[in-house]
C-alpha cells in the first residue's frame, strides 16, 4: 500500500463461508445426495457445525478487528419441499444476520452457493421450464429476512455452477475419476483441465440473476450483485484470440451479465495461461498449493482490473481470495502480496468496496477435507476453534485501514 492509497471509510474487511461447507447435515440438498452416492467422495457430515456455532465464529472475526462476514442462506433448508417454507429456518438465518450486526459485522448474504434443494434438481434443475419461477419464488421468500442487509449476492460463481451442470451430464464412473473431478471450484494440476461451462446454462443463470435483482430492488434496500470465479487468464505469445474465446466462455459471459448491478463480486486465487489449444495445465512446483494451483498472489490484481474493464466500471467487492496451505506463514505472505496488488488497482482509480478473505474457517472443500483455506482451524471431533496467526494479522491490517500491511508476521 502506498502513502497515497485511500480506501473508502466504509471499506469492508472480512472473511467468507458457504453453508454446505461449514453448517453440516444439509440433508435436503442435492449435494448431500451426491456425497452419499458417488464413490470416493468424502462426506460433509456435521461439517464444522457452524449451523450451531455461528455466533462463536462471528465473534472470532469481530474480536480480531474485522468488520464484515459473508455467509450464505440455504435454499434447501428454507424450502425443503417445493412450496413448503420452513419458518424455523428463516428465523435461524435472521438470527445470524442480527448476530453479525450486533457484533459490528456488516453481513454480506449469499442467496445461492452451488447447492439446490433435491426436489429442484430431481425435476430438471436449471434446465426445467419452471426453474426461473422457482428461483424467483425462493428469492421472494428470502427477502422476508433481509431487512437492513446492505449487501446481497444472488448467485455464487455462476460460471462454476454452469461447469458443474456440464460435468454432471457425463459423471465420472470410477473412484479414480471422482478424485480427479473433485472441487471444480479451484482448478489444479491434480486433475485434468476441466471443460468449458455450457453457455446455455450460463444464459439461464444470468436470467435467474436478473430476476433476483429485480426482486431485491423492489423489496429491499440492499445492493445486489453476483460473484464470479475470476481465473486471471493470460495468453501465451500469439494466442490472444484464443484467450478471448476461452475467457468469454469461462468468465466474460458472466461479467457482462453484471452490467447494471450495484456491485460485482471478484473471487480470485491463481492464474492460468491459454495457448493455441486452450487452457494449459498447471505445472507442479515447490510452492504449489494444496489444490494443485500455482502460488500467484498477483492474480487478484489481474482479476480486479479485468473485471473493471469488462463490466464497464461496476463497483468491486472482493468476495473471495485466499490460498490452500497448511503453512500459515505462507498464507500471510500470499495475502500481503495479493492486497498490495489490490491497492495498486485502487491507486489506479478502480472502485473497490472491500476485501473478504476465503475462508473464515477450515472447511469441507466440495468432496474432500484436505485443502485448508481458513483463518481459523477447527477440530472436527470436538469442533473447538483455533484462530491462526493470520486472523490476528488480517485484523491488524483492517484496523489500520490497510496501512498495517506487512507490519506483523506469524
Summarize the structure in words.
The protein is globular, with a radius of gyration of 20 Å. It starts with 11 loop residues before the first strand and ends in an 11-residue tail after the last helix. It has a single domain, classed as TIM Barrel, CATH 3.20.20.80. It is α/β, with parallel strands linked by helices. Helices cover 40% and strands 15% of the residues. An eight-stranded parallel barrel has the order 1-2-3-4-5-7-10-11, surrounded by eight helices. About 1% of the residues have low confidence.
Identify the notable features of this structure and list them briefly.
TIM Barrel; three-stranded mixed β-sheet; alpha/beta; 15% strand; 13 strands; eight-stranded parallel beta barrel; 410 residues; 14 helices
